[in-house]
Amino acid sequence: MPSLPPIDRAGFPILERRIGKGEGRPLVYLDSAATALVPERVVRAVERFYATSCANIHRGAHALAEEATDAYECAREDVARFFGVQDAGRVVLTHGATESMHLAAFGWAEHALAPGDVVAVAEDNHHANVVCWHQLARRRGVEVAWIPVDGQGRLDYAAWCAVAERGPKLVALAHQSNVLGFRQPALARIMDDARGVGACIVLDGAQAAGHEPFAFDEARVDFYALSAHKMMGLTGIGALLCSECAFARMEPVVGGGGMVERVDREGFVPAPGPAAYEAGTPAIAAAVAWREALALLGEAGLDRIAAHTRALATRAAQELRDVPGVTVLGDASLPCESLASFVVDGVHPHDVGRLLDAEGVAARAGHHCAQPLHRALGAAASVRASFAGYSCEEDVDALVAAVALMADAAGGGKRTGTRAMARQERTQP
Ligand code: PLP
């Protein structure tokens, strides 16, 4: 049965654009994993804020400053409610998932961990959940131990068990990969084991947040990182959700205005609560926008959104796999949650991206900030099609038709079905 978008496409005027050859193709937006489209009502909320309550927060006694402060703090409370965090004081508003993971690394791990401690890092992570641990290794002398993926992109549970025996102090995992569509079958077990050895769990929620229900306090992880722009909010804001125990041991990373209770010649006393980690002027209008996006997602229903994007992404992956010369990355037996990545024999992913663009299909090409994962899968790069609650069946039709045309032209009737392109990439330096 066709899956109807749970989010009304009429709320996104950008979907009326025509692009591609001669600007004659309807826009097929399949890049929501990079950034989701922003609904008109979210744009209106930002306009209203600037038209009526534009001011900086926390520092003024006037009405506009109070309104802006109120809106910003209400955003924190809305995020807490949306993600099942009982105390909004454990929601640190950041500039996005990257900064959130950075804060977990340098606001918590840098002083909670000791030289030689093992930090386990999953190979399907985005660079945002890899580079900060490499940086920590340089700065603090911790050891990064990989939880590798197999050739199908599945986290290798046996390899993890060997790491777990070494008593890792921190485990960095992706709730949802931004390259592989499927949910890691071993994720829950790895998290259970990590709790068993008393490791801090840092879970990157950038791709799962807003796509499915998630209750942070119940999930028993220590840190959960997310970005508003991947859930129909604006760029420039995100959050780090912290467990009570992790939050109690954090220290400020960035110093400056807004994060202190007192400063004198001798030193400073950090402000209580999340303000200690939010130095400088934050993205106030983006916080206002995030509230509106959360309201919209809540009205549409996260269960419906999850079922819808799973249906579209899984169908896209299946139909792409049927196209001769196309290889979809990852285990074919698992459903895709909201995206699928693929390569076309003999056509570089960047060229695939450009050819799709000419057909009006906006997809992402490259390594998607996941070089270790691509290397493990034997490909330097791929093309990613990603879906959101406003995506529709026709988007899948357009994608598959455009890829089939291109693969056919590239194959010239001599398809072997091998991973020629991936092999070619592997041989490059
Ligand atoms: N983690 C994952 C899985 C992502 O897909 C992304 C962005 O693509 C990030 C982290 C980083 O998010 P941001 O660039 O908003 O900080």
Low-pLDDT residue spans: 413-429
Strand order of the largest sheet: 4-10-9-8-7-5-6
- Counting DSSP E segments of at least 2 residues, the number of strands comes to 17
The helix-and-strand class reads alpha/beta
Most strands sheet:
7 strands, mixed
Terminal residue distance: 46 Å
Question: Radius of gyration in whole Å, from Cα?
Answer: 22 Å
Strand content: 15-25%
Multimeric state of these chains? single chain
Helix count?
14
Task: Using brief descriptors, characterize the structure shown.
binds pyridoxal-5'-phosphate, four-stranded antiparallel sheet, 17 strands, 39% helix, disordered C terminus, 14 helices, alpha/beta, seven-stranded mixed sheet
Commentary on this structure:
- The chain has 429 residues and is α/β, with parallel strands linked by helices.
- It has 14 helices and 17 strands.
- The strands form five sheets. A seven-stranded mixed sheet has the order 4-10-9-8-7-5-6, with helices on both faces. Strands 13-14-17-16 form a four-stranded antiparallel sheet, covered by helices on one side.
- Helix 1 packs antiparallel against helix 9 (284-300), helix 2 packs parallel to helix 9 (284-300) and helix 10 (302-321) runs parallel beside helix 13 (393-411).
- Mean pLDDT is 94; it is low at 413-429.
- Residues 96-98, 126, 128, 174, 178, 204, 206-207, 227 line the site of pyridoxal-5'-phosphate.
- Pyridoxal-5'-phosphate binds at residues 96-98, 126, 128, 174, 178, 204, 206-207, 227.
